[in-house]
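Table S2 (continued). Query chain:
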Amino acid sequence: MRNYAIILASGEGSRMGKSFPKQFMNLKGRPVLFHTIEKFSQVKRLEIILVLKSDQTSLWSDLCFKYNFSIPHKICIGGSTRHQSVKKGLALCKKKSIIAIHDGVRPLVSIKLINKIYALAETHDAVVPAVPCHDSVRLFNSKKNLPLNRNDVFMIQTPQCFKSEVILEAYNKIKLDGFTDDASVVQQTGVSIFLTEGEKENIKITFPEDLKIANCLI
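Corresponding output:
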C-alpha cells in the first residue's frame, strides 16, 4: 500500500507578527519546513506532497538550492483556505492508500509518532494524535463563560491519518470552509475518530515565542 504525507505550508503566518512566513523561518540554522519534511522522509514507501502558495514556490526553490535540500517531494499549489489547500493535495493521491495530513510548522514531530499513526490507520479509518489539557478551561461566549472538566478536553495535533477512501469522500461531500483540522471534516460524514496519544513536544509554531521554544527543544 502506498502512503502519502500532505504537508500544509501555504499559510502566511499573520499571527507571527512578521511579513516572512513562519514555515521558512530559521530553526537551528535551517528553514522550519526542512526539519518537518526530513521527519517524513524516513518513512518507507511514502510520497511527500508539499502544499505552497503560488508566490512561495520561487522562494522554496531558492532555499532548497541554498541549503542543498534534495529530499524528493511533489509541489502542490494551495487554495485560498485550508480546506481548499487540502483538497488540492488530495487530488494528487491515489486510491487504496493511507494519507496523512500534517502542519508544516510542526517540525518537532517524532519519527516514532509518525510511524505509529500510519500503523494505526491500517486498522482505523481516521487516526488523530491528542494530548490531555492540564490547564483549567472554560467555555466562553458573548453572554457567559462556564467551567469545563479538563479531563474531557484534549489538544489535537497532526499528523492526522486516514484511509484514502474516507478522506477523499469527506472532502468531496463537505463543501464548507472553516474547519481547523481534517478530522472535523471526516467526522461530518459519520466516521468515528480514533484518538491516540500525541507528544507534548509536537508544538505548532504559531507565535514568536513558539519558535524560541522549538529552538530549545530541537
